[in-house]
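Record pair follows.
FIRST:
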Amino acid sequence: MDEKRNRLKESGRELAVSWALCAVCLIGHLAHILGAKASWIHAFHSTGFHLSLSLFTLLGPGRQLILEGVKNLFKGAPNMNTLVGLGALSSFAVSSLAVLIPKWGWKAFFEEPVMLIAFVLLGRNLEQRAKIKATSDMTGLLSILPSKARLLVDGSMVEVPCNSLSVGDQIVVLPGDRVPADGIVRAGRSTIDESSFTGEPMPVTKEPGSQVAAGSINLNGTLTIEVRRPGGETAMGDIVRLVEEAQSREAPVQRLADKVSGHFTYGVMALSAATFMFWNLFGPRILPAAFSQGSAVSLALQLSCSVLVVACPCALGLATPTAMLVGTSLGATRGLLLRGGNILEKFSMVNAIVFDKTGTLTIGRPVVTKVVTPGGLDQGNSRQHLDDIWSKDEALKLAAAVESNTVHPVGKAIVEAARSVKCPNIKVVDGTFIEEPGSGAVAIVDNKKVSVGTLEWVQRHGVAKNLFHEVDEDCRNKSVVYVGVNDTLAGIIYFEDQIREDARHVVKSLYRQGIGVYMLSGDKRSTAEYVASIVGIPKEKVLSEVKPDEKRKFIGELQKNQNVVAMVGDGINDAAALASAHIGVAMGGGVGAASEVSSIVLMGNRLSQLLDALELSRLTMKTVKQNLWWAFAYNIVGIPIAAGMLLPVTGTMLTPSIAGALMGLSSIGVMTNSLLLRLKFSLKQQQTLRSGANAPIYIDTDVEDPKEKLKKPNAL
């Protein structure tokens, strides 16, 4: 980025010099037109002075541009600089011959190279500014990382540069500070604003064991963090590097445009030569009045120079990369990591999307859906119970007290469920908590021995066998945890992987757009079909109990039918399918094997971001097509006018300087349209929000929202 800014400064200096020379040249013309009588003013209009101005322009601000154009011509790869260089040199050469050999009767137009270089450098400078604006979002991400961190050394804090941190260092992050490195919370509790990293506006609670990302803001608590990825190795740094790498990749449509641009330059050179031949041979016959006071060769050379200059392969070459540049940068600021312009082009053509189930259509972690107690079964879900039968709230409260000491996902789900129904927070007796991985945990709570885990585990801790076995039919396929209090089975807690609230809306939107939707799952058939029925995927498009290799084979089968296939997944088991699909889309924060092989990463971990990525890719490709049409239309209209097509009809002709100004405007038009992509995408998102498309979807099924269900006595 610094290199680009340095080039912009150098371009600005050249631009200032060229326009200063252009202003001096215009002063001479104005003085002559207004009839100024001072002798020193007449010097500004003299042929010798204009010759020196033109020569200084070619050797000064225009030198680099002309040299690049000539080099590319000799390499067999002519470009916009070649056409401008040939136009400027031709104008200077013709004017010089007109001065050196007056008897030929040629016109001298030394002001043309001066104004031509000034207009071209102006267009180039504006183009560079637009490119820097398009990529500034990425450098902005890096600039939010703090420069210093508070390192814990022997119990005291020492302020050190962030780039000196090492893996394993313990750092302290105070409220209001940005996290200086990726790591894991070891002490403290706080809420973290990760919006600059994931695009998710809501703060996230962090406690011991939680991962934190560099650049996120610590809002309200002091955290002690163990560094896992310091310095430039942070996830934020990875995102910036991946986006920069993506922006350097060419889309297939860009390679086609570049190829056309090369052939186009040769074609323009041929048209320029044809223009010269035509007006030199036939000009005096077509417009004898126009040639009565000058040479046919002079006018023919001027028109041929205009053809060289007005043609703009630059606009054609900029049409694709500028739109892709803006698209990938815009995606990154919206929590979408897009690995290249070629990905945007391919994703815009997707007609089949395959979803993994766990962690993609579902949230990927267990939530409590139902609590059953002997009293609930025997008395029709009544809240009344006998002395030896525990209520649902009591069973949940005691289980949460035990599970608050474990980091197991099921334990966290029980604690969260108890908190949602406002169960009192009670603690176990110190030194009584025992946990056995794969079985459960036990502790003393309020002078009661509470065991939570498998049936074998609670029986091992004194619970009588076969106390009750009745289970609702709709819960038979769910995971369960048994809660024992002393020698009594107090309850059974049911879990399931909760379906994402935006899953149904996403699937419905994809179907509306004519995209086929499929679901793959390693889970049993009944569970897979249950999830598919809720989100709106037909049973015939669901494959259950599939292994990772079978997922990859299914993707291959879809591709054989001429489908452009995208795969959406989140785990290592999805990596092969993600890699084999035309477009792999990974959920989550861009970590692990899934994101490494994916073309797109949904950093906000929201399934609705898939629709954003699809909309962005389509808008980007629409902008590319608009840019290409503009570039072609400009040349189709501009080249004939520059060649003198209107001269016999209206007497209008383009001088090389005016042609140069138009060429610059064509490039600026392409850049402006590309930058408007930001506005178009924002307006599209606002329309979606107004229509309520992104509002949470509460699915009306037999399984209600867990929090709501836990609040209802008869449902719990």
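SECOND:
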Amino acid sequence: MNKDGTLNEVAGLYCGLDRFEARKKLWSDLEETGLAVKKEPHTSRVPRSQRGGEVIEPLVSRQWFVSMEPLAEKALHAVEKGELKIIPERFEKIYNHWLSNIKDWCISRQLWWGHRIPVWYIEGKDCEEEYVVAKTAEEALAKAQQKYGKNVEIYQDPDVLDTWFSSALWPFSTLGWPDVSAEDFKQFYPTTLLETGHDILFFWVARMVMMGIEFTGTVPFSYVYLHGLIRDSQGRKMSKTLGNVVDPIDTIKEFGTDALRFTLALGTAGQDLNLSTERLTSNKAFTNKLWNAGKFVLQNLPSKDDTSAWESIADYKFDQAETLGQLPLPETWVVSKLHMLIDTVTTSYDRFFFGDVGRETYDFFWSDFADWYIEASKARLYKVEGHSVASVAQAVLLYVFENILKMLHPFMPFVTEALWQALPGRNEALIVSSWPQTSLPRDAISIKKFENLQSLTRAIRNARAEYSVEPAKRISASIVASTEVIHYISREKDVLALLSRLDLQNLYFTGSPPGDANQSVHLVAGEGLEAYLPLADMVDISDEVQRLSKRLSKMQTEYDGLVARLRSPNFLEKAPEKIVHEVREKAAEAEEKITLTRNRLDFLKSTVLVAD
């Protein structure tokens, strides 16, 4: 077959006919000569051009190839010697397998666009034997004239290089190569890290390594970080056919650039990520939380004109152990946790564990800083004593928040930069600011002490929720612990009262249970730390007894119905096993709730009797 789809001279009688006409004529001739046996339909897979839709015919033609074994051997040695590291490490096996079983590479492509193959043929000569290779047409003509005379005519090979061949030259061809004295080449080649998808490890990465070593003598990068593919929420590869392609522009409009970036960056190296609306919504909420925390910090800093207040803030040197040791418990805790986070995050960044960085910073910001320290700081910021009490909270809020922005900036550049620029005294952009210092002081004992305070707060909050105490209502409490624990807990009674909604005037610290212990809810917050909450302070006991009695009656009715179904042979025989299992689980859960409710009801009734 000729390249224009007509048959060549080997086709004999059919020479010059179009491929489709030739097939029709051939069948017609077979029928006329009686050589056709039968005609029946067959379903076959017909290859078609992706762009034009034309039927593609197999055609044997001469192509340019690259001999790959010598190139692959050098690329394999680069990994073996540790000159190139692939992350995750498991992909080194795939890299080694491909290069160890490599075949010669056909680099000729019959396309309109691309780098033309730099080969020129001689008019009137056999193109397989007579050709010149040159960088430009002028150079090719000069070479041809030197060999064939002044009147020689040449023409360039019409094929272009395989796209991956051109891409393989990218690390150095963009930097001025082959001029190795070019400033960009000297400055940026070789580079440190290549980040790309695991699906093109061979198509692109391995070929860049081979070309880099071959043409420059150096591996083009020291590390290859392979991210996973982005799939839809069901784990399917995105495609137009399935209609599940997520448009990043639309996603950004709905959720924001930072939320999208953060969602994608939380993926594990080399592992595909299922992109769902739930993930994006959650990280949009995280972005909003960060913004609101920034607003809180800004609103509670001194005014720019308050020089003395800013001098007080500047006096806190959190990188010094002496300063850390003088801070109140909540401040020592959050600064210590921050310093630990900086070390952990820096190590994770150095090891390219970007997903871990995001998760660790997320957890610290949301769980420690926003949920606990910001709330605890209000006990100082809103006190009437003035700047002396507030300044320590202001200094810590500013210090912790600006370091959070630094660690999150690679993930969420826009919101973090905006918040950074809004902070006072910013003389440079966040993107060029220094990375937080590592190996800063931390106080493990204070961390443990504050965790005890957290446990106590959680226990009181849970009791309030259990007894449906109104959120705004402040209740009495007696905290029972050893002298040592009482010492540090009582010093933070303002914080405890604020976080647990306790009545500060009726908050007591003692080494033994109070006199009304048998009329109180007893909480064990930790080893050697307990709390007693007077029931009468939390609920109207008579009303609560009545409410729980009705609730118990309703629960018992529901439970009896479930038990009746499980005792029915008809249900057990005919119902699907899954349904029977679900009913058993509901019955066990209902029984447990009934027991808890009955115990609480008995406790309330006994409290009424004691009171009487």
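COMMENT: The first strand starts at residue 65 and ends at 66.
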